[in-house]
TrEMBL record:
<dbReference type="Pfam" id="PF09127">
    <property type="entry name" value="Leuk-A4-hydro_C"/>
</dbReference>
<feature type="domain" description="Peptidase M1 leukotriene A4 hydrolase/aminopeptidase C-terminal">
    <location>
        <begin position="528"/>
        <end position="666"/>
    </location>
</feature>
<protein>
    <recommendedName>
        <fullName>Aminopeptidase N</fullName>
        <ecNumber>3.4.11.2</ecNumber>
    </recommendedName>
</protein>
<dbReference type="GO" id="GO:0005737">
    <property type="term" value="C:cytoplasm"/>
</dbReference>
<feature type="binding site">
    <location>
        <begin position="623"/>
        <end position="625"/>
    </location>
    <ligand>
        <name>a peptide</name>
    </ligand>
</feature>
<dbReference type="InterPro" id="IPR045357">
    <property type="entry name" value="Aminopeptidase_N-like_N"/>
</dbReference>
<dbReference type="InterPro" id="IPR038502">
    <property type="entry name" value="M1_LTA-4_hydro/amino_C_sf"/>
</dbReference>
<feature type="binding site">
    <location>
        <position position="386"/>
    </location>
    <ligand>
        <name>Zn(2+)</name>
    </ligand>
</feature>
<dbReference type="InterPro" id="IPR016024">
    <property type="entry name" value="ARM-type_fold"/>
</dbReference>
<keyword id="KW-0963">Cytoplasm</keyword>
<keyword id="KW-0645">Protease</keyword>
<dbReference type="GO" id="GO:0006508">
    <property type="term" value="P:proteolysis"/>
</dbReference>
<keyword id="KW-0482">Metalloprotease</keyword>
<dbReference type="InterPro" id="IPR015211">
    <property type="entry name" value="Peptidase_M1_C"/>
</dbReference>
<dbReference type="GO" id="GO:0008270">
    <property type="term" value="F:zinc ion binding"/>
</dbReference>
<feature type="active site" description="Proton acceptor">
    <location>
        <position position="364"/>
    </location>
</feature>
<keyword id="KW-0378">Hydrolase</keyword>
Amino acid sequence: MLPQLFTPNLGRLIGAGLLACSLATLSACSKNEDVSGQKPAEQRPASTETGDGTPQQAAAENQKNEGAMAAKAAPESGVDYHSFANTNDYTVKHLDLDLTADFDNKILKGEAILDIKRLTPKNPELILDTRDIDVTAVRAGIGDSLEEVKFSLGKKDPHLGTPLKIKLPKGANRVAIQYQTAPGASGVQWLEPQQTAGKKHPFLFTQAQAIHARSFIPLQDTPQVRMTYEATIRTPEALRAVMSANNDPEAELDGVFEFEMPQAIPSYLIAIGIGNLDFKPMGERTGVYAEPELLEAAAKEFEDTEDMLEVTEENFGPYRWDRYDLLILPPSFPFGGMENPRLSFITPTVIAGDKSLVALIAHELAHSWSGNLITNASWRDLWLNEGFTTYLTNRIMQFVYGDERYQMEMALGYDDLQADLADRPDKDEIMAIDLRGRDPDEVFSNIPYEKGSLFLYELEQKVGRENFDKFLMEYFNHFAFQSITTEDFVAYLKKTLLQQYPDKLDEARINEWIFQPGIPEGAPHPTSDAFTKLDPIRKQWLNGEIKASDIDTKDWTFHQWKYFLDGMPEKLSEDQLKELDSTFSLTQSKNNEIAFSWLMIAVRNQYQPADARLEDFLTSIGRNKFLRPLYRNLMENGQEETAKRIFEKAKPGYHPLTVKVNSKIIYGD
């Protein structure tokens, strides 16, 4: 995923550094300790049946003891502390889904059939993850011979949801669950027609990462479990359904759509989109789904996707997902993109008209190797997804757009990382982060993305690019379609690069990168000549030595605009603000990244000519990359009432995740 986190007031944090295309989303908001007493991962001991039908009761009774020890003992490798599922007893191998989208009541209703593999000769309860799901009936048995069985819902946890406990007949290998979602399901957003580009039809999309699949499917919602799936999605006849599966752009709009995902994927990659969607191919294996009003612009903006796919295959191994298509979502989508296999979900805010923001497409495509093919086993290990993907993103941009673009992307990422390091506690600067007792959405920051990428860049620099590329291709083949831990990666590194280059790499430094806060001394510092030449220009203008109209910006890229603006001091005079705005029309910029940088400056300096644009920006876009820092900036600069008024106005159109994170900024925990 290309989520979002910008640190406000970056100018005072890193001087002339840059707050640019951040690769993070929801910063740490909660400092709770342990969430659940049970160990919800495959290392959890097999459960034993008890008379009251709660096989995890003993573990739950130890919750307080485990919570007290959490600060002393490191997280156990391979344990997913964010799932109730008893994956040592059973694993789901296949999902068969049949859901009807009820737009009037804003619910998904139907049945999920789970094919399970037994891992114990005993017959404990099957425990699944749910969140605000209304389960009406459960059947279980062998093959197609299913009978109604008893089930119960456990205690609700504020982060994890509610465990669904199912009594299974002996030998049962299939479970069918009838249910419906809640209108406010955390992983589903229902949009009214006026919230779409066409203004005529409603829209639905899901967002399952990190643990929101459980809000629309009862299942083992952990990245350790990979499953294939089939689905039938029933919609109003005017609309088209698409999924992270094999989509047919020629499918008749008859209200029934069939899907199959033959490759095994973790639950967070199951995705549904429903709307007034058309399709346009961009290459042999690539195309774009979008509302008709956005289709041509999106296809033109992202026309290089096929080239990206081909060059990534050439350098890092085959693309194993058949097709790679894009779904352009309405502006309320809370992230930049989501790497749902075969069909990445993309924000329309990156359709800039000049391909300046297509690094996001490269990022989601790169996940087809790092993240979807090889997956973090728990959210502690997210850097294995996002660090590798960020590294690959930069390489793809170099392959397709050249060295200068590559250097700028690298430099921007480094500045983003520095900003996060200046704004986060030490415990959250560790790549293998301890998330026990916390909402896993809090893992998303520039640490797993940019620190992870910088670590890999150092490995590349030390062993040489050709050798490192060979390592990456072997790594992707070795762990293909597996979920791995940080310790799995370190063990593999010891057997490969550390053995091959003992004079260039050492284990202690690798452990420092992964398990310690900050950046190791002597780490690479990516720079760009395209940026450094802007520093004296900015300084001359700030000193009054030149006018804004004297600055030649006709060949500037978006990256240079971001660098120039985000390097401004915290305070500018009213005259300076007016000069910049009148010369470069910044308040009315159509590039959302440039507009964001300018609005951050405007809020800090209470520049009233930008107030209307600020309100329009905050109410028309749902991307947390922009919203979170702007709301925080308003709150920190004496504009609390403005922040509250705009947020309440915009809230009905925001995604539930957007509401959650920004409510904390405006109203506190």
